[in-house]
Design goal:
346 residues; 3-stranded antiparallel sheet; 19% strand
């Protein structure tokens, strides 16, 4: 018989007795990445499984280690992050140990092998060492001076590479927590939640195993690094959870049926890894705020109304097409008149 203190786990979706929840909750975003959001409804069994199969591996990912180092994101105990680096196995013995400089001023590449192997490979100069590293990472030799390129390549070719399915489990974990926060416990009974739970906890899940890529790295302006931004975006085929880590590492996963994002009370989250905070918001606020910031940077006059609609002043830059409600007029007064007319207030 289920006791009155029984709770439902966000990750396995099962109802369990209170004795199964003794850790105080799980960091939705790993603590090593500055996650300030703790979900108390995570059972002990899932805590172990998700940390071992996702969080710990993501935290060791060369790109994540580089970005933590670059922005000085402390660990869960407040200590500075370790120096970013990785090793690459050299055929027939030894490794190249790479220490990345997060500031981009240079990197240390040290052969860790027997003297005979150093001589056999002709590693008698820094240039030859860089050429071997470029060969092993499948990058141009000129790129061996770019920390971000090396960290990205190491995700796949390092001595202990990060398996792409790890990222599928990582985003599935985020999606389950965000889905429950957005739609309540009823979300855990949806087909999407069940599929995400399988991806997170079942090592044989075909969705996770089919993943063959790491999330791309790109500037996502105006999101400010190193903040993490997560939001539910309503697309024609599905409501998608979009994840922007450190303001530049992008990923996404289907989270619900299309048409449901606008029903969520909370549909966006901003996590500051330096302050250890998490602030819930809504997708319209994220979309409108992003658009307003972008247009302002382009030199346009922008006014945001309380309901998220934007007034954009006409001018030499011409009209703007945005996937959110906008009003284009030659003055704020005319924008208000158009807004009233559209709402039938005049």
């Amino acid at each position: 018989m289920v006791g009155v203190s029984a709770r439902r786990c966000t990750y396995c979706l099962q109802v369990k007795e209170a004795g199964s929840f003794t850790t105080g909750g799980d960091h939705v975003m790993p603590a090593s990445m500055g996650g300030g959001w703790i979900d108390p409804d995570t059972c002990d069994e899932c805590m172990v499984a998700t940390n071992r199969g996702g969080d710990e591996l993501v935290a060791k990912d060369p790109l994540v280690k580089l970005l933590r180092d670059a922005y000085g994101i402390p660990n869960r105990r407040g200590a500075p992050p370790p120096t970013a680096g990785f090793s690459v196995r050299v055929p027939d013995g030894g490794v190249l140990q790479v220490e990345l400089d997060a500031a981009g001023d240079g990197h240390t590449i040290t052969p860790r092998m027997a003297p005979a192997d150093v001589a056999r490979l002709g590693l008698d100069s820094e240039q030859r060492v860089r050429e071997l590293l470029a060969e092993l990472l499948h990058v141009d030799v000129d790129a061996t001076g770019e920390a971000l390129v090396l960290a990205r390549a190491a995700q796949e070719h390092a001595h202990h590479p990060t398996p792409p399915p790890v990222w599928a489990r990582f985003t599935a974990k985020l999606a389950l927590a965000c889905g429950r926060a957005a739609w309540g416990d009823a979300y855990l009974d949806t087909d999407h939640a069940r599929a995400l739970s399988r991806t997170l906890l079942d090592e044989s899940d075909p969705v996770a195993l089919a993943r063959a890529h790491h999330p791309p790295v790109d500037e996502v302006w105006p999101f400010t690094p190193p903040k993490h931004r997560i939001w539910i975006d309503d697309r024609p085929g599905a409501a998608m959870l979009v994840v922007v880590l450190f303001g530049q590492v992008i990923d996404a996963v289907p989270i619900n049926e299309p048409g449901t994002a606008k029903l969520a009370e909370w549909s966006a989250w901003t996590l500051d890894p330096l302050e250890g905070t998490c602030h819930p918001s809504s997708y319209p606020a994220v979309a409108s705020g992003t658009a307003a910031a972008k247009l302002t940077k382009e030199g346009r006059d922008v006014v945001m109304f309380p309901d998220g609609e934007l007034f954009i002043a006409d001018g030499e830059l011409g009209p703007v097409k945005l996937p959110i409600p906008t009003i284009s007029a030659d003055s704020p007064q005319r924008a208000l008149e158009l807004l009233s007319e559209a709402r039938g207030e005049v």
